[in-house]
From TrEMBL:
This is Helix-turn-helix domain-containing protein. Keywords: DNA-binding. It comes from Amycolatopsis pithecellobii. Residues 28-82 form the HTH cro/C1-type domain. Residues 133-146 have a biased composition (Basic and acidic residues). One of its GO terms (molecular function) is DNA-binding transcription factor activity. It comes from the Bacteria.
């Protein structure tokens, strides 16, 4: 028997839940296709039944945070990325570069975090010198090195 929260028909707030479930399902399907693994393989890797995973991908069911974590582990992506897609977490700041780093399926979570940290440190450093023209900034940097 399905939980009331899994009922995605009707209107109003439940309709929004249906939209969120559809979005997360589509995102999971895209990530699975990017990883070149079948639904059955992801089902085994994530420890989620094949029919249930299929329902999630089709937007029929909205997975819990725990199930999303298991799916993320199976896909070898961050659970945070799935939480954001599911509307559980707010979109992290950073723009397209940070989004691309987070979406990269080749990098480990640790590698992604290191890259994000370095990227953010460069952005912070450059924001402190935004009032200075690039030529002045180079001149300023030369004097700092002395």
């Amino acid at each position: 028997m399905a939980d009331e929260g899994d009922n995605l028909t009707g209107s109003g707030p439940i309709e929004k839940v249906g939209h969120l479930a559809s979005d997360i399902g589509e995102y999971i399907r895209q990530q699975r296709n990017n990883a070149k693994i079948s639904l059955r393989q992801l089902s085994k890797l994530a420890g989620v039944s094949n029919p249930y995973l299929s329902q999630i991908e089709r937007g029929v069911r909205r997975p819990s945070a725990e199930i999303l974590q298991q799916i993320a582990k199976g896909l070898r992506i961050s659970a945070e990325a799935l939480y954001v897609q599911a509307g559980i977490l707010d979109q992290p700041a950073g723009g397209p570069v940070a989004d691309a780093i987070r979406a990269d399926t080749v990098l480990t979570e640790r590698q992604k975090q290191v890259l994000l940290d370095v990227y953010e440190s460069f952005r912070r450093e450059n924001n402190q010198t935004t009032d200075v023209s690039p030529k002045e900034s180079e001149h300023h940097d030369e004097h700092q090195d002395r």
